[in-house]
Design brief:
Layout lengths: L11 H4 L26 H14 L2 H34 L1
Length: 92
Amino acid sequence: MATPTVTTKSTSTATRDTRSNPCARMGAVRPTRFLTRRAAGPLTLVLTAWDIWRRLPPRQRRQIVNIARKHGPKVAARVMQARSRARAARRR
């Protein structure tokens, strides 16, 4: 018994309709060029972060900067505490 084949008419406006799919206007997102199969080093992380940063709209960039200003000092203090604890544990 054969299964019926359904054919649909494909138009370019159907795939790029931004009203039904707001992300359609972005098109295909290029894969990041910087990540490879090796372990990610500091330079790789910086280049990947820059690649992601330049793709963000200005409004989202401002949000990230504001969050970093608010929480950055707290995170830095916690890192310094963890670092001093790790040094103290190694001395024992």
